[in-house]
């Protein structure tokens, strides 16, 4: 397994992090280094082992269907970089 | 009903599967206590969880889980005691967490089946692949500003059931019947209001074309088709589009398309072109959902009689046609109304009056059964008057029109207007005599062999009686007296 | 002795006896903070609020209505959302973010009468073992190697918390531990830090790094002080689905050092190749102390130890890649403009996140992506199950486990920066218990050859913090660690 520049670009795109073409080779080598080290997991025999899904041996708790809105719109928009008439605002999205 | 479409190269068959997103009827959201009311001011029904503020955590709504179980049982489906919430990761402004909490590998409901009613009175079983719970996204408004998109998170986190069908449908009509039946079941169960106008039920259509008997073709997914009419229109359009491409030697790109309501076409969604890699994984903020022992049985015991069971009962017990029974059970209120009308009366007559007359009028006036000026008891009263020969069917229609107008009881109208039918043989004899005396020439012609004139005499006599003569009695008397 | 040199328990005692007021105690700490700002431990100081709270505390006490932590000045790691006080998680992407809500853990502390001194620096989003990844500059360890001016790291990610408590700029502090972020900095700074069992402290309102691993816990200068703090911080929270509904014991009562008859496990696999002799020495010494106190020392096996770090570096990045998706420049935090929405996202996140955070998001994105999920994520969760099972089996043979906390003493700023894996190896002894959700404490046990503190780690069975505190107290009693950071000697 070796991660090339185009894979780095693909991951960066999925993660929505701008990575310039000039940064790709360095990042690729760093990620390869870490992923190569992770690769040792393949030595472990995990046949038939249930993957861990929760740390504590618990199941999901359920809450009653009650309306409990502790905050108002001001709290929701308080930290927004841009808002208009109660809406969050982003550059136009083309569908 | 596998309706084939003729193309230049032969017949084509549609293969249709539907994914229906149904908003779960609940007071609060799937993972937060924010309310779910429709039409609130933007961002006023948004908890800190729904806005994905740092450090916020989801807590599962137990009632929503019960609603999903109930729906699963209503779809004759396997309810899974253990299910897992996973994250579906993608970026979009109306998806504040950057992921949608959904169920992927382990949904709460597995395989099931529903029966759809087709216009010719036949039925067909459509497989349900699965039902899972997931969060709704917020709403992006693209048309408020030329350069900006506005985001309202009121819907963000509202509980949805995604109900996925098998690709078992072969025509637009079948797809429409499926949506109608599914909606009826959800409404009977009270797990979704089925209101497509308000977006509480939305359809994605998966469609591919093939030559009959050939393997499945490449499909396109048409997103957000928000009425049954549009489901049919989108299917018809998309089928033609695909046939055209295939017959021109092209191939179908597997893609997501959007139904453009205004232009009546499907078009490729540019924003979804990028290959998706949702990176599903179990949500570490939540634990596996394990239904407590006895929950499924407890919910099963509360299930109402569902449309199909009701339909079969109407057909079996009361001898209704499949079509009439299907119409009556399409809505729970309608079925209940009908049952009240039919109780202790002729069930077929009751069905006829409910469907043809009452629903006909309501349909014309765009009213719901709930707003009907004629209650079930009053319609029953009218039917009683027909059954005991107080009025004829024809007069009954007149009385019914008056009932719709005024909301009065049938009996009162009959008394008021003196519409009671004439069943006295002496009176009828007299009436016939009158008519024959006034039309001696016609009597002669009739007796001379012009049988067709019989209708003329009936009409005249009815007219003279003001429509009140008992038709059977009148016929009998006329036949007797006109005989040479 | 200055008020800042009191232990938390002593301070409570003095406050109760009215030998000192909460205002005096708070002022002494505010002064200490002002004096040692160069450590860069605090990101935000809240002196006015602290004094107001201290005054209110004194009033309560005068009325005889004092609460368990009344008047105790604390520092809060900047990962805990504090209502009305800027909370950044050490990241530029949250610069200026002022929560409208209070995390459950801090709310519990204020409920019990504690006083907030300010918000503590940390590795960005708790990703780091040196506090070098903070967007607001590194934190300095108050310790120095004798005869050296080299600035040392306090460890991480809760570097500000550990440095502040070691430098007497708080009687205690909150931290969070995902793979060692409380225990390793506690060891580096010569103080005590405990990560309780996963589920003890609510995660609500604490900015998430890796949800299945994150757990809050306290720092203080004695075992008993951490026991007092942890009791206030813990407790069931219906707002966190992973919070455990269990009674919270009065752990201070467990800090008596009686380990007679306890079986202490020494995991063979923790004796790693190339382990510095001083680490081995302090570990062996620790075992001897416990043996002397009447405990039985037993060798145990944790066969999958070697795979804990690589497992962690799949699971934690995977979860963080998703947890950090919400920082998109739309609803809060940094927004870098872009012509399109995608550009806005990509620019905001490129500008807002530092190198280590980006690296982990990228790794996490990769290991979850189509075609790699089974080989990496699923595999790691399977190995994680084996690691947890190792501990379950080991705890059939022992009541607690003793290990070194970290493979070295504090290193200099700038060291281990070139190779991410060299940095990751800092957590080799702390990560396995994180993966299994077990409680673990670090207690100062001695000095390294170059005069820096070394810590011992005690791991316990799930929810047996009591046992952990007992053993920790025994170590503390035997170690009699009274060395002071260089900084304090100078002052």
Automatic annotation (TrEMBL), chain A:
Molecular function GO terms recorded: ATP binding; glutaminyl-tRNA synthase (glutamine-hydrolyzing) activity
EC numbers on record: 6.3.5.-
Gene3D superfamilies named among the record's database cross-references: Glu-tRNAGln amidotransferase C subunit, N-terminal domain
Record flagged with keyword Protein biosynthesis: yes
Name of a matching Pfam family: GatC
Catalytic activity: L-glutamyl-tRNA(Gln) + L-glutamine + ATP + H2O = L-glutaminyl-tRNA(Gln) + L-glutamate + ADP + phosphate + H(+); L-aspartyl-tRNA(Asn) + L-glutamine + ATP + H2O = L-asparaginyl-tRNA(Asn) + L-glutamate + ADP + phosphate + 2 H(+)
InterPro entries (UniProt xref): Asp/Glu-ADT_sf_sub_c, GatC
One GO term of the biological process aspect: regulation of translational fidelity
Record's keyword annotation contains Manganese: no
Highest taxon listed in the record's lineage: Bacteria
Subunit structure: Heterotrimer of A, B and C subunits.
Functional description taken from the UniProt entry: Allows the formation of correctly charged Asn-tRNA(Asn) or Gln-tRNA(Gln) through the transamidation of misacylated Asp-tRNA(Asn) or Glu-tRNA(Gln) in organisms which lack either or both of asparaginyl-tRNA or glutaminyl-tRNA synthetases. The reaction takes place in the presence of glutamine and ATP through an activated phospho-Asp-tRNA(Asn) or phospho-Glu-tRNA(Gln).
Cited PANTHER family: GLUTAMYL-TRNA(GLN) AMIDOTRANSFERASE SUBUNIT C, MITOCHONDRIAL
Family: Belongs to the GatC family.
Protein's name in the database: Aspartyl/glutamyl-tRNA(Asn/Gln) amidotransferase subunit C
Organism: Roseiterribacter gracilis
Lineage, opening ranks: Bacteria, Pseudomonadati, Pseudomonadota, Alphaproteobacteria, Rhodospirillales
Gene that this polypeptide is encoded by: gatC
UniProtKB/TrEMBL annotation, chain B:
Record's keyword terms, sorted: ATP-binding, Ligase, Nucleotide-binding, Protein biosynthesis
UniProt KW rRNA-binding keyword: no
Organism superkingdom: Bacteria
This enzyme's EC code(s): 6.3.5.-
Annotated Pfam families: GatB_N (PF02934), GatB_Yqey (PF02637)
InterPro entries for the chain: Asn/Gln-tRNA_amidoTrfase_suB/E, Asn/Gln-tRNA_Trfase_suB/E_cat, Asn/Gln_amidotransferase, Asn/Gln_tRNA_amidoTrase-B-like, GatB, GatB_C_1, GatB_Yqey_C_2, Gln-tRNA_amidoTrfase_suB_CS
SMART domains in alphabetical order: GatB_Yqey (SM00845)
Catalytic activity: L-aspartyl-tRNA(Asn) + L-glutamine + ATP + H2O = L-asparaginyl-tRNA(Asn) + L-glutamate + ADP + phosphate + 2 H(+); L-glutamyl-tRNA(Gln) + L-glutamine + ATP + H2O = L-glutaminyl-tRNA(Gln) + L-glutamate + ADP + phosphate + H(+)
Complex and partners: Heterotrimer of A, B and C subunits.
Family stated for the protein in its record: Belongs to the GatB/GatE family. GatB subfamily.
Protein name per Swiss-Prot or TrEMBL: Aspartyl/glutamyl-tRNA(Asn/Gln) amidotransferase subunit B
Classification of source organism: Bacteria, Pseudomonadati, Pseudomonadota, Alphaproteobacteria, Rhodospirillales
Gene it is expressed from: gatB
Automatic annotation (TrEMBL), chain C:
Keywords associated with the record: ATP-binding, Ligase, Nucleotide-binding, Protein biosynthesis
Catalysed reaction, written as an equation: L-glutamyl-tRNA(Gln) + L-glutamine + ATP + H2O = L-glutaminyl-tRNA(Gln) + L-glutamate + ADP + phosphate + H(+)
Enzyme Commission number, as recorded: 6.3.5.7
Domain Amidase residue range list: 24-468
GO CC annotations on file: glutamyl-tRNA(Gln) amidotransferase complex
Domain of life of the native organism: Bacteria
KW Nuclease (keyword) present: no
PROSITE patterns: AMIDASES
Molecular function per GO: ATP binding; glutaminyl-tRNA synthase (glutamine-hydrolyzing) activity
Active site, per annotation: 77 (charge relay system), 157 (charge relay system), 181 (acyl-ester intermediate)
Gene Ontology biological-process annotations: translation
Leader peptide range in chain numbering: none
InterPro entries, sorted: Amidase, Amidase_CS, Amidase_dom, AS_sf, GatA
Assembly behavior: Heterotrimer of A, B and C subunits.
Similarity field: Belongs to the amidase family. GatA subfamily.
Name the UniProt record assigns to this protein: Glutamyl-tRNA(Gln) amidotransferase subunit A
Designated gene of the protein: gatA
